[in-house]
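Appendix B, example 12.
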Amino acid sequence: MKKLKELTPKSSQKAKRTPPKEQEWETFEIKDRFYKDFFKGAGFRFENCISELVDNSIGANAKKIQIETSPIDENKNLFNITIKDNGSGIPSNDIKNKLSLGSGILSEYKSNSISYYGVGMKFAIINLSDSGRTKITSINNREKSVIEIDTTNIPKISTPIVTDTNENNGTIIEIPNVEITSNKITGLLKFLGVTYFPHVDNGNELEIELIHNNESRIVTFTDPLYRHINKSAVFSNSIMCNDDEFFINDSKITIKARYFDLSFNSDDYTSWDKQQGSSGFSGQKSGVYFRLNGRYITLGDNKFYGTEAPYRSGGNRIRIEVDFDRDLVQHICSFNKSMIRLSDKDFMKTFKEKLAELANWGVKMYNQQNGAKRIDISTEAQIERKEIDRDIDSKRKKMNNDDIINAPELPKGLIDDGDETVLRDNEPKGKKKRPPIGTYNKASFAVEYMALNTHRAFDYFNRNGALIIIYNTNHGFYNNYIRMPQESKKLIDTYTTALCDSFNAGKGLVRVDGDLYDSIIDEILMVFSSRLKNYNND
């Protein structure tokens, strides 16, 4: 019998291992279907897109920029848009790189440049044009480079074509299929005029021409802080000032707060505060104007970042300019520079506290001034005021009945903040919830002030059984109203209240179609608004 060969168990055998290799890395892969939603969801509005392209022209030392539209289908408001400048152009060996996300090295950007993330031009083109090919022609040092971007589906870039030329330096960007309305053009003129005021204010030469429907208009650069009127550091020509500067991580921040006195001369309004139908300081143009090198990246937008105070009386007359270094960009705004995202870092605490302090200062100025407007009242006027007070009191008592339910409910977006009702759109998720409507104000009647999106001088609402009269700060009547003596204000409040109360009672009694009744009310309110606007002019 043969002796079996003794076998060594496999588990005890030493396996031969290949020498370890250096770890390999690959670029994070992004699938095609992600691109379109990513670009379109970044919050770039029409005017933001145009300003991103204008930024590039200014960065190339352009002195003249021309923006021209040509119609494709006017029924659909579709146009081609061409942006042309006389800047230094893009070098032929860099033009393709300029169209990659995050292009450029931060240390190589000019110190006065607004560029930081290297995404502006790409996002601008893709958000302006849903389809078609955008053509970029750039001339730099006798070389002409032509490159195209196809935005029809997934963005694609062509290989650049480079030829010799004797043409002057500059860049032309031709973007197809852009949706443009006359309102967008009007808004763009104002937007560019304020946005690039800092560039001109810094002593730079710049002309921006806008051509639409064969009509040429030159942008007028406008200071939202009215420094051409008030050159004082404290108070002058109805403008109160409160300025400060400090450092965060060795980066300088300069803050200039302005409160516009109730006696501000309406003849001095610039195009920024003039609007069709009426002029004045609107809530939408109050807030913080963030200034980065050569331009404003925000224009108020009724945002004060970290304080609720300006939503109270006088908030529409407060503007705060924040001039900050580019080193702080990542702590103040996102890659869409018009969207402010203040960092939660500890070193930003001082900055937020300063914003709150200056906003509250503006409210204090308003309250002091409004209290100081009281004047000596004659005996006859005092008797009349007592009668008006009695009328108001009886009106309040009468409004405790159920007729108030016929008033329209407070619309979504109107939130009771205790002292005053305020309007907020798209409130960020995760923000602390406010008390439900009516928590603080249990009165059956209240008069409040707010910028409303309507042509009426006022509107009225039912808030948990209380009648709320809201005067529209965007309407021409409001500027007259705030200058009136108290007895005149009360008289108008009485008439306005009586009118709205009659609507409440009538809606439950008049046998007409509800929509028809609402139309009748709307016509009466418009007529009454027109009459109020001329109240102190007769």
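The first strand starts at residue 64 and ends at 73. The mean pLDDT is 75.
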